Amino acid sequence: MTDNDNEPRRPNGPLRLAAGAIAGVVSGFAAITVAELVSAAVRPQAGPVVAVGSAAIDRTPAAVKDWAVRNFGTDDKLVLQLGILAVLALFAVALGIAVLRFRRTGAAGVLVFGAVGALAAVSRPDTKGFTDTLPSLVGAGAGALLLYVLAGRLERRPTTGTATAGEPVADRDRRGFVVMASTAALASAGAGVLGRSLNSASGRNAVASRDRLVLPAPASPAAAVLRGAGLRIPGAVPFITPNSDFYRVDTALVVPEVDATTWRLRIHGQGVTRPLTLSFDDLLRRELVERDITLTCVSNEVGGPYVGNARWIGVRLADLLGECGVRPPSKGGPADQLVARSVDGMTIGSPIEDVMDGRDALLALGMNGEPLPFAHGFPVRMVVPGLYGFVSACKWIKDIELTTFDAYDAYWVKRGWARRAPVKTESRIDTPRPFARPKAGTVMVAGVAWAQHRGIDKVEIRVDDGPWREARLAAEDTADTWRQWSFPWQATKGGHTLTVRATDRTGAVQTGERARTVPDGASGRHSVVVTVE
Fold first, then answer.
1. pLDDT attached to residue 87
2. Sheet (strand 264-269) strand order
3. DSSP helix/strand/coil, 30
4. Number of separate helices (H) and strands (E) present in the chain
5. What is the DSSP letter of 321?
6. Residue 338: helix, strand or coil by DSSP?
7. In angstroms, what CA-CA distances link 475 with 133, 325, 472, 479?
8. Omega prior to 379 cis, within 30 of 0
9. How far is CA 292 from the centre of its chain?
10. Which residue, among 317, 310, 380, 315, has the nearest Cα to 343 in the 3D structure?
11. How far is it, in rounded angstroms, from Cα 525 to Cα 164?
12. How far apart are the first and last CA of the chain?
């Protein structure tokens, strides 16, 4: 007996099972693309794949996030989205097979997909409420209806005789099913393309606001990079990291596209005697400063790529806070934490003492001579030298609240990361690469070292278990940037291990003790193994 009637149905032979699976996949595809189309009328972040993916990121343990970044790098979000789509495809296949026997129940199963997407959408910190549920619910409704109708095509009973196992669908039913499924797939593809187009159009004002922007000349320009600060050695990274090569690590599955003309920043909270709300033009009219600052992600493993150096233009954050009446704790201020909120709901907590101690903590508007790229926080982001990004570098910032560490835990702290995280003294070998096979003779070993806001005083190289030998340091730009180094190694044939360590300006030597990135950054010494021929 089925959930519809008590008449016998054709047994599920291989062809019929395949047709059921196709019906499920087509219906699932329709649900996704209709949801994409509806999200264009709501907002891109409310689409089910993005909402479920974002919710998954929020609930993923810190160790798993760290593993994903370590293994997939900046492709971790693409891998997550593909994984979600793969799970949905398997779910759709299962429903398509189930609907052969239980038509109503199987079709209604698509609504589970809608419920999960809707709950994920409203659970996000940037949720807009009920409207965020509409893409998932409408998409699931369309998918459920389509699956029910397609199942009807597969329910046709044999016109003569008794059905036998493996009996093919009657020709007319098969043609009708194929025509309907093909039409639905094409219509769904059209809906998906239209939805993508409309979602792209919704960001055109933001793109236009960036394209029109011409950054004023900074009142306090950065000094020209000293000759000799960058090495001209094959394999060495450039001193200034191009925007296209600058690392990106964040939780945003869809990069926010914020219109600078409508953007606002609110500053409020404990110790704020004069709250401020600023527009982008308000910031442009203020004194702009330009500084070279190296940023490092806390997810950077020893020797990893998530560190970059750029020339930033922005407004001093300490000046803005001072105008609001904010005093650091050392001067009697009641708040010790600055909580920055992004348009996508991210919260990042920074020590007020560090932001106001005289370092060049900025609300940055530009990067390497152009407005911030969207992926790096346009229109405005925070940049604080000396702190890992998860406690300082809020992108797409819209709100600053002054509070205490005891009163509030920011996003990453709730997930097991440290409240305070100064950048550790680290160094990296960029050339020769691991497992390289250089020729015997003079081999240039080169790389970078960093200890932002302390500066690098010395870099040393060790070959195998030999003594530490001092490398040649490139010229120092500032204490807030990385420092390049080189060492002419007289390489002899055979396998060798090269190890590097740095000493910062406080006299602290880079530790050899290995630690993973959680909770406050990796430590240890970078080594590469090479074979000299």
1. 86
2. 276-279, 264-269, 397-403, 337-342, 347-351
3. helix
4. 12, 18
5. H
6. strand
7. 56, 39, 10, 11
8. yes
9. 23
10. 380
11. 70
12. 76
- CA angle in degrees (0–180, nearest 5) for 293-291-270: 80
d(CA 31, CA 195): 12
Name the DSSP class of 523.
Answer: B
User: Cα separation of 438 and 446, whole Å?
Assistant: 14
φ, ψ of residue 488 to 5 degrees: the values are -80, 105
H-run or E-run covering 158: none
Strand-pairing partners, residue 472, are 486
3-state secondary structure of 502: strand
Q: Letter for the amino acid at 364?
A: A
Q: How many CB atoms lie within 10 A of CB 56?
A: 14
Distance CA 514, CA 527 (A): 12
Alpha helices in 343-436 (DSSP H): 352-355
How many residues are there in the chain? 533
Element (DSSP H or E) covering residue 273 = none
370: left (phi over 0), alpha (psi -120 to 50) or beta: beta
In whole angstroms, what is the distance from residue 106 CA to residue 115 CA? 15
3-state secondary structure (DSSP) of residue 315: strand
Q: What gap in Å lies between CA 418 and CA 351, rounded to an integer?
A: 12
User: According to DSSP H, which parts of 47-109 are helical?
Assistant: 48-59, 62-72, 76-98, 103-108
Count Cβ atoms below 10 Å from residue 460 Cβ, excluding itself: 20
What number of other Cβ atoms are within 10 A of residue 294's Cβ?
A: 23
Ranking 101-110, 216-225, 239-248, 291-300 by mean pLDDT, the lowest is: 101-110
Distance CA 425, CA 449 (A): 8
- Residues 339/244, Cβ–Cβ less than 8 Å: no
* Rounded (5°) CA angle 484-485-486: 140
- Of the CA atoms within 13 Å of residue 244, those in its CB half-sphere come to 0
CB 168 within 8 A of CB 174: yes
- The tokens 């390497």 sit on which residue? 368
CA 395 to chain centroid, in Å, comes to: 11
List 387's β-bridge partners, or say none.
422
Could you give the CA distance from residue 503 to residue 31 in angstroms, rounded to a whole number? 57
322-380 tens-digit pLDDT: 999 999 999 999 999 999 999 999 999 999 999 999 999 999 999 999 999 999 999 99
Peptide bond preceding 519 in cis form (omega within 30 of 0): yes
Q: How far apart are alpha carbons 118 and 35 in whole angstroms?
A: 11
Query: 3-state SS of the chain: helix, strand, coil percent to 5?
Result: 35, 20, 40
User: What is d(CA 407, CA 270) in angstroms, rounded to the nearest whole number?
Assistant: 11
Global pTM reads 0.83
User: Tokens at residue 397, please?
Assistant: 């910032």
Separation of alpha carbons 352 and 330, rounded Å: 10
Identify residue 351 by its one-letter amino acid code. P
User: Ramachandran region of residue 171, left (φ > 0), alpha (ψ -120 to 50) or beta?
Assistant: alpha
For 387-451, the DSSP string reads: B-GGGT--SSEEEEEEE-TTT---TTGGGT--S--BPPPEEEEEESPTT--PPSEEEEEEEEEE-
Mean pLDDT over 140-146 rounds to 93
- 317 token code pair: 């954050």
